[in-house]
Amino acid sequence: MASNRSQGGIQQLLAAEQEAQRIVNAAKNEKLARLKQAKEEADKEVAEYRAQLEYEFQKKVSDSTGDSGANVKRLEQETEAKIHHLKTEAARISDDVVAMLLKYVTSVKN
Question: Cα 21–25–27 angle (5° rounding)?
Answer without folding.
Answer: 115
